[in-house]
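RECORD TYPE: inverse folding
INPUT: structure tokens
STRUCTURE:
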């Protein structure tokens, strides 16, 4: 093969590899919006026009969790040391609402200080590339993953472990990571038992996965609320949105709604308020 032919073959190979490689992540102005969503196809940060956030004052029954996360986020906004946070517990108890509410509150106190960046569970493996994009930027970035958990044979948790503490570069100074999960250790009890039963050294087999949750400096537990707290949540929403209904009737209808749903939580309370507002022909602005 002549040099010209070899050069032609190499050029075609190079062109083919370039077509197959993913395009570089799109640059974005981190001051263009209060929040962004990270996408991987194509890679880039998409600004969020309006964040769906609940006013932090409407979140009831989670005072300790609220105060702890709010103070941690305030420190982060002031570029002081702050911890990654894992919010775990029962579904519908206000975990993701608290993250978004705290972000909104801190930006109200220190305008434009923190950008909220949501990363989807299935995109966790792309975290290192996201960090390269935002590392060293002039705005604090709060990464948020909702409903985070890992199943058997899922190795993407290794990317998250490196982000939280490990790696030569370490976590960027302008980045903090908040995650919500129904599982305290981010993996099901069945997975833990399976690992123990099939491993030569059961303790070591489980340690690598369970140690992931240990890399969160803050563990905030959320539990199903009792009836008085449920009523407090409902009444707070009713006052906020001007739903004119006697308290006794409001509580009776809210109780019946929770019984039909089989649970009491902030999510169930909000669903009831939406139903009530619709019947009363009131907008929830």
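DESIGNED SEQUENCE:
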């Amino acid at each position: 093969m002549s040099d010209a032919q070899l050069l032609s073959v190499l050029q075609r190979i190079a062109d083919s590899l370039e077509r197959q490689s993913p395009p570089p992540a799109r640059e974005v102005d981190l001051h263009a919006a209060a929040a962004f969503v990270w996408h991987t196809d194509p890679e880039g940060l998409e600004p969020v026009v309006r964040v769906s956030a609940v006013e932090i004052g409407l979140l009831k029954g989670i005072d300790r969790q609220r105060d702890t996360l709010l103070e941690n986020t305030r420190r982060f906004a002031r570029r002081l040391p702050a911890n990654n946070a894992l919010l775990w517990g029962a579904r519908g108890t206000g975990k993701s609402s608290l993250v978004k509410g705290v972000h909104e509150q801190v930006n109200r106190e220190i305008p434009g200080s923190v950008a909220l960046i949501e990363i989807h569970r299935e995109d966790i493996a792309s975290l290192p590339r996201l960090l390269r994009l935002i590392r060293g930027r002039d705005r604090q970035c709060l990464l948020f993953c909702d409903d985070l958990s890992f199943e058997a044979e899922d190795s993407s948790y290794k990317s998250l472990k490196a982000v939280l503490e490990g790696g030569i570069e370490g976590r960027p100074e302008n980045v903090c990571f908040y995650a919500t999960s129904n599982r305290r250790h981010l993996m099901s009890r069945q997975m833990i038992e399976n690992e123990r039963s099939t491993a030569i050294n059961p303790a070591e087999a489980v340690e690598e996965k369970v140690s992931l949750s240990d890399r969160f400096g803050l563990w905030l537990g959320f539990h199903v609320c009792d009836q008085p707290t449920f009523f407090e949540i409902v009444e707070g929403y009713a006052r906020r949105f001007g739903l004119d209904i006697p308290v006794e009737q409001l509580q009776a209808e809210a109780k019946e709604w929770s019984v039909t749903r089989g649970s009491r939580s902030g999510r169930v309370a909000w669903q009831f308020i939406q139903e009530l507002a619709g019947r009363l022909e009131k907008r929830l602005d």
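NOTES: Residues 227-279 form one domain.
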